[in-house]
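User: Continuing from earlier, I have the next pair ready.

Assistant: Great, send them over.

User: Here they are, in order.

Assistant: Folding the first of the pair now:
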Amino acid sequence: MRTDYSRSVRLGCLAAGVDETTLRERMEGSPIHLTADGRLPAVAETLGVLVADLRRWPVPLSLEPGREPGRLDDALVRHLVETAAGIDPDRPLRIGEPPGEAPLRLHVGTEPPPDVAVAGVPDGNGARLRHAGHAFPRLNAPGTGLGAVLTAAMLAGEAFKVVAGLPEGKFHATPVVDFCPVLPGEQPGTAVAPPPALERVLLGGGGAIGTGIALVLDLLRVSGELTVVDREVFEKPNVTSYSIGTLADAAALLPKVRLIAARLRRIEVNPFHGTIQDSIEAVDTGTLPWPRTVLGGLDSIDARHDLQRLHADLTLDGSTGGPIGTTVALHEALPTGPCLRCYYKADHSGRSAEQRLHELTGLPLARIARGQEPLTEQDLQGLDDQQQELVRQFLGRPVCGLINSAELGGGTDDAFRPSAAFVAQQAACLVVGAWIARSTGLITGPARRIEYDTRFGPRPDQMTDHWTPAPECACQKDADLISHVRETWRTRG
């Protein structure tokens, strides 16, 4: 089984405005070299995520272990080599200086070598990035797993701008970045405390954002109990777009809920292999505990509306989207409003999901009706060039799996959007950051919507809105019924 880079390459094609062949050749000729200070807190976690994120692109990748006193531990280096091999054994992580063309150099630490383009470091639950010529301040706190994932995702985002060759005006190379997803208006490292244990928490969706949330929870060393809901299996295209999972997991067609359960080593996971609607019915019959907090990583409006029908005390929804799929957002939803139906308006066009899939891909409705049959080369016949390009990357997958696909739906409209781990991880960091802030009382007050485009970076002074409930929404019109359902589930325990 060979690694499928179609989704990560597609993101670059849309961002750079070039065809897939051109973009892939550009990436294959753009080496990236990593260095790090082995004495840095959370350096292992940061490098682990960064190496995986960069290996999910077809770029030459190398790592310099360094010299004492900051040399990387041999066991860590072996782990990083194994991480890269699990994603693509044909493109190993090279140890030592790369040959040939001068690479893009990235550093994890506050004192980068002089030829480094961008350096990053976790500071508490946040990240600090500096381009060449800009010094780091004194760090406020040791890096956490959340800070490590955010730092790695942002460093990968800086690399993406270069290796994809984004044109002027389509990105911003911010020379100084200081951001904390727990307290977006504060400096990183402020008010860092151990995260609480998970109690009556449900994760809805085990896709790109859901696996990102799982990665952050694992590296934060969170304990407790978590119900994970997803109906799909982990497949080959997911290897280069999700935050966890290997080619071996894809070959085994491991259910996504099992993939996440295996990664969350300190959490007692209740894997629920089904839809959100199935989980609601299980809560209603008492076979699944009613969650008080819901973390969302779903990819369709309908699924998000179903998630709201769990009527949890707090729902934290993460999303990716925007013009090319690089925008990340957090929606804080309450049973009294604003709820996810306030944020995501229903599609009243009357078109079924099958009809929308037909309009997007050109696949005949009769073929879509045979949903369990995998797509083959024969299905490309009769499609135009653009439709063939879109459908080709899903060959071998059942049609039914495409109806709510993040790569086809994007969660908010019918436009095609690809996946990229470094983007989904930043959405996941917003979700976990909000969970920490709300569950510990660091942030109170009205529900927030936080959004930024990863090509331009977070702007803490411009990225947060406070939403109010929509008067016509079910959370307002059916408030008494929702309250009754919540009380019934609460008394049932």
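And the other member of the pair:
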Amino acid sequence: MRKVIVVGGGIGGLCTAVRLLKQGYEVTVLEKEPRIGGKVNAKFKNGARFDLTASILMTPQIYTEIFEYAGKDYRDYFELLKIDPIYGVNYANGEKYNFYSDLGKMVKTLESIEYKLPIRYLNFLTKSLEKYLVSKKYFLNEPMIDATEVSNKKLIKEFMSISPFKSNSKYLNSVIRNEQIINYMLFQSMYIGVNPYKNSNIYSLIPAISHVYGLWYIKGGFYKYIEALEKLIYDLGGSIQTNTTVEKIMIINNKVKGVISEKGDFKCDIVVCNADYPYAINHLLKNKKKCLKVNKEDYSCSVFIIYLGLNKKYNNLQVHNIYIGEEFKENIQMPFKGKMPEHPSLYLYYPSKIDDSVSGKFESILNIMVRVPNLQYKKVKWDKKNINKFRNMILKEIEKINGLEDLKENILYESYLTPIQLKHKFNSYNGTAFGISHKLNQTTYFRPHLKDEDTKGLYFIGSSTHPGNGVSVIIEGTKTLTKLIQGDVYKCRI
């Protein structure tokens, strides 16, 4: 039986472990933190469960498929609840709309904004869904480790058919032509940390997927999914060791031999590295040539998150809420220029809307997230004084939302996540939240590969590798990775 070491217990490492266990491999997951999950984690306070980062669940079949793959019923591990409306959207001018995956309700809302808007919206859905299906079939679900994969005439034709070179902003202006809805769509394209005024309109597929497939919620919060994967790994006979920091991947004669950790050596035939790719290259492999290349890549922005335990329930909030601030275009681009937004647009996650089990001793809990520069911009300081200043600015914006005017006086508990924690706790390069940027010249074949070209038995999975960032995208990537490993074993390449 071939032995596999998975370095890092993030979503990619855990899902790869499940798939390889099902294929008969002996798998051990090594995680440096006391708790698995990587950035998909949780904070616990007074019985409350705060999801640390990930909270938006699209395409639920991707989350349940891995349990079916393992021969299990996902309902024995976690409970899915459908959310509709999918978003409550608030604007700085006081306007508010609920947006739905239910087509009839969504059309009615859009018609109340502008009478021809539903027609343009349906056109947008059709075009963006095509982008998603083409991307999924020809790019996301393919390994992209060979240059011939991107030079294939059919693939090039399909790629050009979705007109990828127009910016997301220009594309939406040509299709939707309503500023309120455009800003709502642009905000969602930032879920992978890209500048929507500079990067490809391919990422308009994110809001389209939300509306077509709907949004879902896991009872008990997103971290329940990590706990479900943990149980599944144990049920399949796998091993997880926390508080175990891997210091080096052992390579002899261009072949993986194991890993060196602070708790000793682990010998194996295969290493799947789920640590942040730039960190792995710089610290676990110390490959000078690759270090130079990876350090020159363009990186995504970061995030600042406020976690609040509240003394009140806010019925005007949905589970997922977006606040579109003043001077949206200027402020939403500031993080990509190394500046803090002066009128931040915000994402508010309020699971207490439908799930009292996460609130603990508080009446309700709330996460507030805003995009900020990553740590390559040295002028932005994350000291106590600046954190408090930015926090006050954010709460001042939130007071503009109807029904949240008294939020500040109902705060019982408060904590933060900054780019500093992302760097030091999760080894994220420059404290980025989304890894290597998803610019077109850093996607598909041009993104770090799932398989190391120089070392037999070494593989990667995570936000900075192909197919890219996002929980569902990474889960899908583990299917491709598993096929790669199986193919290499079958052909005696390992």
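Worth noting for the second one:
The CA atoms of residues 378 and 400 lie 31 Å apart. The chain has 16 helices and 19 strands.
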